[in-house]
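@channel sequence for tomorrow's demo:
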Amino acid sequence: MFLLIGILLGLTAIYSVINERYLHLQSAIGLMLLALLTSLVLAVVSLTMHVDSISWLRALVEKLDISETLLNGVLCFMLFAGSAGVQIKSLEDKKWVILSLAIGSTLIACVLTGFLLSTVLGWFGVTLALTYALVFGALISPTDPIAALAILKAAGLPKPLEATINGESLFNDGVGVVLFTMALAFVGGSTQPTLSDAVLLFLREVLGGIGLGLIVGYITHFMLLRTNDFGTVLLITLATVTLGYAIALEIDVSGPIAMVVAGLFVGNLTAPRVAEDVRTPIRIFWKGIDDTLNSLLFVMMGFIVIFVHNLAIAPLGLSIAVAILVCLVARTISVYIPLALLTSSNVLKADAFSMTRLFTWAGLRGGLALALALSLPESPEKALIVNMTFGVVAFSILVQGSTIGKLFSPEYLKGILKD
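structure tokens (generated this afternoon):
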């Protein structure tokens, strides 16, 4: 395992240098593109020269187990690090917009994606039961706009819009995991859950995650204010993430939501009261953790192409194309509905259509979707779902991510908000 992690870190470092010196792409896009090209070149060599040049790569991805690694490892660190760096004041003015998008939009997108996908695939003779289509809708609905945000900020993205995009992505990861758990219960359970069961599960996961996050955040706050030693502070924050997430898994509440809440608590209430000579290096450490894990994640996503299999080329390409189109349509509708309601009630002063266009194209999908797809129990539908998930994620990062800077000018971005 140590060797595999070393290989992954080494490849990520090499790709980062190549991207910085020659490609000049946004980091996430460049890393995934290079990893994807490596996978494809090795696959072509294996097929044309009858040389097994890809077995080591398959072993690398399988032994690292991206699903387990991300869901029960990397994700908790990334969410804590990301939320600890967000100022609550920047989210406060747009709290209703953020909550509407993180909960309402994610829920609408999940249901709409499921129904549209099952229907449209059926038109082309590809069968996917509605229950499995809803599972796909749940795992693909959360957004990961890291690449888009970096490009948009360079183009002059207004701070309120940046805070809204950031806030939505922080919370919809947790909501997406909860919806995925609920959808999976309808697929795999021996007894079908009722609507009330689903609502209770949703409330337990969300409210339980918020409650646990507040408790963990307060305990961390209490301990951090009683030490000025950098090493001790570092240990406390690492224990906060690992132990807090482990407890969430044990008591069946949302770990992602708990980590976001704990990160916001510590970053906004505790950090300002910690000594400057400790606070600065801790922030640098966690930013480094966030950047490194994001880089590793995008490289791992590029390697997942070797698992796109088990389907004939024609149905595979058709299914991916349908999934991409359905996801874009569902994202557009699911964003426009809450934004239109908020603007009509004067809660939000903005051009709802322009804002929807931005949030649709900036709504990239990331590693969480792939990890959830790969975590599905073995079934005839799993291969199709993994293939479609990879297609949507790759399209969103490589196509949407690389074109967003050209589609949205500084003037367009500044004209979205009216206040």
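heads up for whoever presents: DSSP finds 18 helices and no strands in the chain.
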